[in-house]
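Onboarding guide, step 5: your first structure request.
Type a short instruction followed by the sequence, for example:

Predict the 3D structure of this protein.
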Amino acid sequence: MNKKFKSQSNFKNYLPHNFLAEKTVLSCMIINSEIIEIIYKNITVETFYFKNHQELFKAILIMYKDKKGVDIITLTTFLQEKGLINRIGGIKVLIELNNQIPNLVHLNEYLRLIRDKFLRRSLIKLGHKIINSSYVTNISLESILTEFESEVFKLTNNFKTRKLFSATDLVYNVFIELKHNTMNPKLPGLTSGFCALDSLTQGFQNSDLIIVAGRPSIGKTAFSLSLSLNILRISKLPVLIFSLEMSKKQIIYRLLSMETNISQLRLRSGKLYRKDWLKLNKIIKIFSKLPLFIDDSSNLSVSEIRSNIKTILLQYKKIGLVIIDYLQLMQDPCSNNENRSQELSQITRSLKNIANEFNIPIIALSQLSRNVENRSDKKPILSDLRESGSIEQDADVVLMLYQNYKDNLNTSTLNPIKIIDLIIAKQRNGPTGNIKIKFDKTRTKYLEL
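The system replies with structure tokens like these:
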């Protein structure tokens, strides 16, 4: 091995960097202060490798945010008054930057070069951190892996650069999509199996975060399982269920009950007849071939959800739907917020990011607050979302399940079918409305009314 890599101090000197690109970007900021905002929205102080460049960047940002003019004279004066002139390498460094004539046309490329080297340095540092942490045996392996999964997630997001699209590009792409849809008429989203719901939502769209909310025992889990079976049958795409409340065995029992119309009580007690076994054998053969995946881990974190999604994508090219049951039981191990509402806001924002990243619809079940019970009109509204925080803001679609007393006056043990209002309380790209569905006599699944 080359001697220059043997010591940590020497190794640090050879971390990836681009001196000329850093120098050129700083020169752009001094010569043309109008582009400062563009630059600081794309990179941070830490993106620069050289300390004097970091100090210069900080000084320029302070002046810009204080609405002071930035040029060679005002910047030099500011640095001298703050006693920072020697920390940036002296006045000669400023003169060199001012005399440089950068090509502003290539500014985005300069920024890309700096960010590329910064991310490479970050990966190297993360690699060292992984090695050092692996030697610490008093920290659980799960905690270490969760932390690094979160770090890699941050790096992945930083790697993604924003692109500005012209109206010409956008209109052309929409025109191609319209032409394709005309030639091949179908729902643009994933069909839910409920025709009335699909007619309003046009199916569950990729990258959508969908909230299904309701009071306890209204049937949120039954509704989500009905959706998952419909999607598995129709689209043949994998469905991933994260269940924080029910075990995987309980979910399988419910799914078997839904498909065979055999009550869970009889399934669990083993009081089955010959015809029941014939149904079960048939359904179990079908289930064994379905791309359905269940994770019933307690204390589920967003990083674990993301990791599991990536694992499924290694085997399958695409995921149809992700279901999380339910939102209020999730935790963020990296959160420092003592306020539960703020922590939940971070979780919903992260779930929306995952939906965008993998271009898949995510359904998260959510409880409604007890405020509903204190009103004469029990019909839920958006503000009833429990520990709402940014749930309403981050969600693309909010569905609410509500049992209207008047619709269920004739419900009895002889007629156990329960009618439920499925309220589309929010839909970012479409109309809101009210649909009636029924909870079937087995009390396990929802059907069209």
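Each response can be followed by summary notes, for example: Confidence is low (pLDDT under 50) at residues 1-11.
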